[in-house]
Amino acid sequence: MSGSTPYYVTTPIYYVNDKPHIGHAYTSLACDALARFMRLDGRNVKFLTGTDEHGQKMEKAAQAAGMETQAFVDMNSENFRILTKTMGFTNDDFIRTTEPRHRAAVQALWRELKARDQIYLGTYAGWYSIRDEAFYTESELTQGPDGSRIAPSGAEVEWVEEPSYFFKLSEWQDRLLRFYDENPDFVAPPTRRNEVISFVKGGLLDLSVSRTSFRWGIPVPDDADHVMYVWLDALTNYMTAVGYPDSGSDGFTTFWPADLHMVGKDILRFHAVYWPAFLLAAGVAPPKRVFAHGWWTNEGKKISKSLGNIIDPLELTARYGLDQVRYFLLREVPFGNDGDFSHRAMIGRIDGDLANDFGNLAQRSLSMINKNCEARMPEPGEFTAADKKLLAAAGGLLGEMRALFAAQSFHKALIAMWVVIGDANRYIDEMAPWALRKSDPARMATVLYVVAETIRHLAILAQPVMPGAGARMLDQLAVAEDARTFAHLSPDHALTPGTPLPKPEGVFPRFVVDG
Ligand code: ME8
Question: How far apart are CA 463 and CA 461, in angstroms?
């Protein structure tokens, strides 16, 4: 892999106050699909996920569970590690903010900011939301029914007054605006970019970056009364994992700045305002891009523990199948938009797109080859214009999908694949190979070869989103395991006539309602 272009993609590190749910699985899934895509495309990929374990919220959650805080975060972090296995994620690292390597990185970044005169001691007096781990100004708050104050996220806030170190965020307003201007792709999608710019144009206050009223955090260097603000601590994870503070290390020089921080829209401000400001202030290059995706609701309702409608990714994959869930999540909602989860929509995709379209394409053509070509890859004759047209459509997919993955337009990439699936199904209907069996077996062989070659393209390209199904289809085409990358989509690679094929089996069954 050395010499290939690096690609560094990160998920948010998740709070371990609770179990993972579909929202967490979604963000990491998008990153996994990207990581797999880039690896198949020959890039040197680093894919990072992990858990965010410090702060008042964790301390309170541990107390509520009657557990010692470290034991509590150990237990819940493990659930996120299990999620990565259940969902088939291919992260190269799993970072925890309670690890020594991370403490060293955060303290080094603090020292750098201090040395550059970007941090000063003062007193914070204002509103704080423990649920969001965020400070709010009076003007951002609304009045709750009982007179309490509510943050834009819906979380309650409390009044905090304590000694605190501040980061000179106010000094970075113009520099940040210039940075957004010079880097038009830094925040995506464009609506989110506009939100960020108007927030920064509204003026920035210095940011409180330490707390003194609790202990569960990384101590401020040389002032142990303070622990660091959990967001300064958490954001730094992206650099810890590539070797910061050793900025001469292989990891750091190869992978920093990160290509993409994938986040939900709820945490955009931290990633697109505070994080680049910290980095610019410390003389470190900001990441190349932050993509803020939308929010899932469950059958039209906000997903929340209090409503009891949390969707457990483990249950979902057990019920519908891993590839099916992965496909649904990335296909159902234009990436970036909010979306609604419903069992009906899920079953619709499984039976329609997967079973009827893609599954049936593979099943019927491979069964015909098995029956009529002695279970060997048929030998094609000369290609007709119709054959060439379908092969060209399949051959053009990689270029199209490459651009769409680079823009994180997963749904469009899948739609592009389904255009070719539709073309291939229509081609079979029109060519009617079953009718050629007696009248023109050589032509039947050509038609089935063209379809098989189209399926080979589709299966290779399906792997980032549906690794299991893609691999099973490639097994059925007897494609060697080392011949499944995007390099094998070039014109000099194609199926070898005469290769013996295993007995075909359905890859995408229809969903059977149980009981
Ligand atoms: O914010 N729909 O962690 P967190 C879509 N520790 N995505 C959702 C979702 C939903 N309903 N619910 C959660 C934190 N997510 C911090 C991050 S990063 C340095 C620190 C996803 O456990 C989405 O990606 O609250 C959101 O941004 C993230 O989970 C929040 O995870």
Answer: 5
